[in-house]
Structures are given as structure tokens and as C-alpha cells.
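User: Quick one: structure for sequence A, then sequence B.

Assistant: Sequence A:
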Amino acid sequence: MKSINTYHISKLLLGALVLLTFSSCKKWLSDHDVDPSNLSPGTYYTIPAHAEAAIAAAYAQTRFINGGAGIFANNFSLTEMLTGTAKTETGQNTDLNNLIGLSYNGDNVFINNWWNGAYSVIAQTNLVLDRVPAITPMDAAQKKRILGEAQFLRAWSYFYLVRLFGDVPLITTSVDAASPLLYAKRSTKDSVYTQIVNDLTAAEAAGLSWTDATGRVSMGAVKSLLAEVYLTMAGQPLNKGAAYYKLAADKANEVITSNSFSLFTNYFDLHNTATENKTEHIFEIQYLSGVADNPNQGILLPNFKAVSAYGTEIGSTVPTLQFYNSFETGDLRKVDRQGFFYTSYYDEGSGPLKNLSAPYIYKFFDVIANGTAGVKGTATSSLNWPNIRYAQVLLTYAEASNESGGPTQAALNALGLIRTRAQLTTPALATYTQNTFREAIWRERAHELCYEGITWFDMLRTRKAYNELTNGFDNFVGHKFPDSGSVLAEKNLLLPLPTQEMQNNPNLRPNNPGY
């Protein structure tokens, strides 16, 4: 932990000072008229503008999800390659290949980046939560809101850490060079989840609005994340069961009955800059061209097939053919350039249409950056990256409701909204048992939420893996990826702790089983 908690905390404090004057990477942050040359750690956190800049720095750190992971790869690919539903067309990133082959260890750059990135957010939110309460004078509602946003972001980060690594150091105060927390021991999963729930419950009381079109944390985001946390706690590895499924269903239902969110009528709006932070998008990672460009456009493009304005097209993370073919006949999500995939695109982004002979991910495709028919692309992207969507809330409600009491019409209606948009019919309630309804929801989550960093965590909590060839579900341990042939083992239920962190902090030992 030493390399994280000393380096990142000091770096992030300085980052907040810089953000105070210069245009923020967050779209909602306005400029402030404070000279950074007059600021120091001793004089910081003294006025409300410091609080705003500090929480902006915390938001900025969430972009670690899409940060670079060596040659031709970004961090988001970790949670996709582990599912077996994605592959790479480049093959030049050894760490990426090791994820696909399930042969990774604690030296893997993706694993290091997820650990460091999540703790970077935690370091900054701890500073906010420690220092902002003392700022006087400051509007009470503004202070309460900022603290609530920080509590959400800290919970959001620990939720990733505990699912990926299991027992992890639980650090809830800011750390300096003399702190014993530099050598913190791992806390139990139960205690980490308790902190996550406490943070989110506190954030619920922070006076946040139900929606926020500027990209800040909203009440909808807090309750949606809490529903997902309860759903996870109900399943593996905590196994808290029916009571927590009921908590998840109730919390998701609060979001649904708020009437603050709805599904987009068409899939294009999922990757339309005009509809960011609205309607179906509950929480997104924010990007702004020229300040913090979306870094995934070139990564997701076909490997040098000349379909965009970008000079470099990577093909780092693309769908496996088996997963693409697993969508039902007539599913709009599979239709070229209408749903989640494209199998043809325009030459150089704006020329004649050409067949690509393989499926690629259209879900995050920025037509402004890449180009479209007769319109050249800008080769720079402001498109946000989705993190929590209303579709996920609907499916969480349906699953949690079924697990806590069997199929209901309300749960079926939630599932039906997803399927109707995909132009699929939904069988009547009487046709389902609890078991068949469970698998129908799992199958819908696999298809609707694909490539959004959710499927891997569904696999961990259910201990099941979607089998694209049988359309059923295998036990996690022993599931074979159809494309690569890799087979999931017991040790893959957790990632190894980063080697460098264990060298710096012996209190983290032993590593997770199997590593």
C-alpha cells in the first residue's frame, strides 16, 4: 500500500490545486479565479471553491477504468476478457493475452491498474471527507452534497475492489507519510461491504437530486448502486440470501417508481453525445474533447480496416463470434449499426459502406469522432462511458424480486421492457418457474449489459457462466470459453494482489488462493 497511499494522495492533492484554475475534465466544473501559485497544502480546503475542485479531482480519478494498460489496450478490457465473450485482434499485449488465457499473476498491468486506480479515487474522497467539513463559511446544502458525492465515489471504488480482490485494506481517512495505514492489513469482505452500505446510506441523505444532467452523482445513482450492492451481497461469496434479495428489489423499485428514468426508444442514444447523463444513463464516466478525450474509440475499432477518421485502429477488444451468434433471431441488438454491433461501416469513416466480415462493438461508437456517411470524423471524442444504466436497474429488480419470492408480474414487466425494445416477445408469467425465470433474467443481463463491465461480476456472484453454445448456464468452475478454450478454475474467483503492493506491504500477505 505504500506506493499507493503516499504517492497517490500527494499527487491528487496537487491535482486538486491545479483543477481549481484550469478547465476541468468534468463538464460541470466551472473555472475559478484563484491563483494556484498562492496555494499550498496548509492553505488549501479553506473556501467552498476548494471543496468543488477537490470533488472534481475525485471524479477525474474514476477515468482509471479506461486508462492505458500498455501497448494497444485500456483497463476496461480486464472485466471483458475474463468473461470469455471478448477477444483481441492484435495479440501484441502480453498482459491482455494472459487475461484471455487465464494465465495472469500479480505482475499483470491490468490488475495493478485496477488496484491503483480504485485506491486513487479512495485517497481523494478520503481527503474530501476529512477536510471539507471544516470549511467555513460554506453553504450547508453545498457541503452536504459534496460529502454525499464523495461517499458514493468511495463506495463505488470499494465495490470494485472487494469483488475483484476479496479482503482488501479498508482505509477511510486520509493518509500521510507517517501513518501506520501505509502498511494496512486486509479487512474482511464483510467489513468492506458494511462500509460500502454505510457510505451509500449516508449519500442517500445528502440532498442529491434524483437526476443530474451535468454528470454529478444523483440520488438515482446512489440508490441504483445500493441495489446492485445488495444483490451482490445476497449471492456469492457472502450468501446473505433472501433478505438481501428483498433489499435489492426494494431499492431498485425506488428507482423505478421515482419515474425519473426510462429506456431510450432507440439504441443509438446509448452512444449519442446529445443524450449523455439523461433518461437511461444514471451514472457515466465523463469525457470532454480537448480536455479529457474518450480514449476507447481507437481501441475498439477493427484492427486496421480503415473505418474511421482515426489514424490508428487497434481491435484490442472485439466480440467473440460465439457470443454475437447467441442473440435470439430477430433481436434488434444484433442488427448491424442499429443495436450493439456493426458488421459494416464506411470507408475511412465517411466513404462507401463496406463489409467487415466480423462483428464489432457499436454500443460505444462515437459517430462524431469516427465519422459517418458523407461526414468526416473529428478523431477526438467527448462521448461518456456508461457505468450505471436504467436497463441494469430493471434487470436487478427482476432478478432480486424473483429470488426473494418467485416470479411476479412486476418483475416480468421489468424484463419485458428490455425485450420489447429489442423487438422480442416475452412469454407469459404462467410459463415460468422460479428457476426458468432466473435463467431468463441472467440471459438477458448477459446480452443487454454486455461489454459494460458487469458480466464478470454477475459470474462471480452467481457462480455461473453463460454458455453461448447451449444458451444455458454452466458452473463457473470448469466453464470453457468457446473461443479461446480457456477453462475457469476456483482461483479465478479472485484476482491476485499486485506483486509490487505485496512487496511494499508485507501485511497484505498471503495472496489469494492459487497465486
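Sequence B:
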Amino acid sequence: MKKLISLFLALTMLFAVMAPAASVSAANERTPIVYIRGNGDGLYYPDGTLCVAQFEELSLGGDDGLDKDTIIETVVNILKPFVLEGMLFDKWDNYGRAIYDELKPLFPDAGLDYNGNPTKGTGVLKDTMDKSIAASQSAYSYNVNGQYAFAYDWRLSPYDHVDRLHDYILQVLKVTGQNQVSMYARCMGGSLLAAYLERYGHLKLVKNVIFCDTLQNESTLFSKAFSGQIEFDAKTIERYAGQVDFLGATGDGVGFTFGDVLYEIVFKTMDFFNQINVTDKALEEIEVLYSKLGKALMPALLHAFGMATQVNYWTEVNDKDMDAALDLVFGKEGTEYRVKYKGLIDKILYYREHVSSDLDAFYKSLEDNNIHYGFIAKYGFMNMPLVKDADLLSDSLVSLTHCTFGATTAPIGQKLSEDYIAARVAEGKGKYIAPDKQVDLSTARVPDRTWILKNAHHDVIDCLEPVIWEFLNGTNETIDTVTSGSQFMVFDYNTLTASKMTEDNCADYEWITRPVEEPTTETRLAAFMRFFTMIFDFIAKFFRGELDFSEIF
């Protein structure tokens, strides 16, 4: 009897010991998620000072900003070469140099050095996250939504971070007791995720991957801007006016704009010439002038803001635009400037060589390593209207085609042709045609693992998280197995929610479909008055010292 009692007690104690272990094991069955965000985190240097990067709020007027005389002097210094050399003699080099000289002091820390390194030592975040998972942590716990957020200096080359990211993933696996993580990247974070998978994907530590609005396949805006592919179209600019007004009303981000005052000058100039029905030849001359101005302006702005030296922005320049972009921003091969920046350019070309020059091979490597990947993209907005391909379906920063690695789309405001759709249906691919008839996902890299959201700006993400988490926590999930969202969805800015797209709820925004009326005597006169009112208003504000030059540049 004693033996039986002893055996019973032993089994009871063994069960008591095993029960918590089983409980912990069950909790650990959920795949840990490592999240890589894009740019936007505040950057701090080792001494704790803030690095003022481009597009951060910058006061250029008032008590804490520049005085009136300094602002006027800045404008005059920029306008002199524009008027005296550019307009009169078609010489624009000094104009671009003047812009750089005047604006660079406003962003002293944003750029990197000639080798693509921070100018004040290693750029870090205030909380580097290197120790975000404490060594003493023994219990398995999730961050918000079950994700561990990897922090990094988003200006640097993605390959500057991959080894530290790998160590971070090993920490996550150690703490959670798992042997794989799932990974999720947004925007510029996609370049870092791509670099990591290119170097470490063969270790098979990654189970699922979602690329959401990522730019490793190209951002139309940055690829065309860096390579100087500037275009001006009155209709495109008119649509962009409606987009800016709409996003301003919603309080959402407008994306990368070129300022209210500069926008007004360009838009109303083009509108004026369109309304007064000038000859094609005259209009072409205006467009040529803007194109020359843009090619002088773009490299100057990129260097002044620091973007020219931030390697991660260069990952968004596609392979075919890269050579032209390097020539425009750094000069031709063998020139003094090009040689000076050799270290930085080598980092740019390293990413090109290992990822972007052959994206087909990159995604094939993921499949070879059993990494289950998918894409999420948004559209319904347009890119900045001063660059080529501004009419591609976009989330205002990256086109749907590039986010999905190959989806076929109609130009903004149009539909795919009936013949094209009929051909896809005959091939048995009709289910990949969006209800709005603007998108065909059958040509995307992985049609069965691609979700799209219409009428959503680049900043929209919360409503898509249920799809993201279900995909990342699942096993070989597809559009047929994920239940938290449809392949084709529509965003509602009133409720901030996403719903399944139907033929009844998929209309474009009004400012996209708004017709451009034929000029009449009345509209020509109105355009004339708007144009000159804008010019006189600009001059008056200039001499009163009321211009906010952060809006112009």
C-alpha cells in the first residue's frame, strides 16, 4: 500500500511540475513577430542631442525662427541666379548651388558623410532597443499586438543594420523559446527586411513575411525625382490640388509635397496657360523651362535636406533609373564630386547588386528557403505631379504595381479595357480583377497572397492589422484562408475602417474624376485674374515678411 501511495504522490508531484511547463509551452506556440517600420523615428546622437532631419517641423519665422532681413536675403540670393543667369542665359548650375548654400544650414545634421556614415558618430535612437529584451526576462511576453519592434537609424544603408537585426532576432527566439519568427515591414523598412533575408534567409529562422507598402521594388516618386525625370501636366496638377485639400481636411498626412506657395505658383501658371489656350509651342516652352528648373532644383534640394546621402532612400530608386540618378546627384563617373562620394556610392550599389538588380531572384530565394511571404498595398491617390508616371495608381508615395511586385493597373481615374478584362476572364483569372476594374492582381508576384486597400493614403495601417496578424501567425495562409479581410478592400475616412470592395462602394474620390472643362471666355478671364492675383499676393507677402519659407522649400 505504501508503494502505491508513494507512486500516487510521485505522479501528482510530477503532474504539478509539468502543468506549468505545458502552460508555458502552449503560450509559446504563437509565432513571435519582429516589426521593422520605415522612416520617421526621432534620431538622437550618443550625446542625447536630436538630429533635425528633413520634413521635421522647422520654424523659419517668428520669435524662434529667422528674422525678416535674413529671409529676404535668402530669397534674393536664390532668385539672383534664377533671373540673371537661368532665365536670360539658360545657365542653371549657379541657381542650384545657391539653393543648396541657403538651405543646407537649416538641416545641418540630416545628411551623412561621404562614406554614408552619420556626421556626429553613429546615429542612434534615444532608446536603441538593443536591450529591449532584457537578458533577465524568463517569461514569454509580447509587445503590442505580439510584435517586437526593431529600432534603427533609417538613414543608413540597410546592410549597416542586418547583423544587429540578426542578433535581435536571436534574442527574441531565446526569450520566447521558439525556433522561428515572422517578420513584417512597412515603407522603407522593406529595404532592411529584404537585406536581412538576402543575407540570413538561408538560416530558416523566418517563417512568414508581410511586405506592407514597401519600397524595395521602387518608389515612383523617389526614383523619378532622384533621376531628374520631371514632367508638368496641368490636369495632373489639378488633381493633386484636390488631393492636398482632401487630405488636409481629414487631418491625414499629405505625403511628400513641395509646399503650398511653390505649388500655387506651378499650378496656377499651368492653369493660366491652359485656360488662355496658348499655342502648343508656347506651352512646350514653359514645360521645358520648368523641366530645366526642376533638374537644377532637385539635386540641390536632395543634398540640402540630406536625402542625397541617406542610403536607404536610394534603395527606392529602381535599377534602370539608378545610373541617371547617380549622374544627376553626384556627377558623371570620374568627376571630383563623384570620386569624393565613392564610399557612399559603394553602399548604394551594394544594395543594388544584392537585392534590387534582380528582384525575381530575391523572391525566388525566399521560396527556396520556405519563407511564406505576402504583400499588402494601397491606392486611390497620386504621386507628386512633378515627376514622370505621376498618374500611376498609388498611395501617394509608392505605386500599387511596385508594392505588389507586378500588378497591372489602369492610369488613375481610368479602367482596364474591356478586351483586357475579357482576356483575363478567358484565362480563368477573372477573380483577380478588382471590382472597380482598375487593378489586375493576376500579374502580381503572388496573387493568392496579396491584399489591396483602395482610397487609403500611405499612412493608413490600423484597419489592416487583423489581416497582417492572421497571416503572420498562420501557416501557409492565402486569400482563401485569411478570414479577417478580403483581397479587395475599400477604406472609409469617416469611420477609419476597411470593408470588402464591391461594385457599389468602389468609386474614386471626386477630385480624381472631376472633369476638366473646355476653356471659355469666362474661365480664361478667371484664370488670368487668379494667376496675377497669386503673383501680386506673393510679392506683397514677400515685402511684408509674411511668407513661411518652410512651405516653399
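The mean pLDDT is 75. The CA atoms of residues 490 and 505 lie 8 Å apart.

User: Thanks, that's what I needed.
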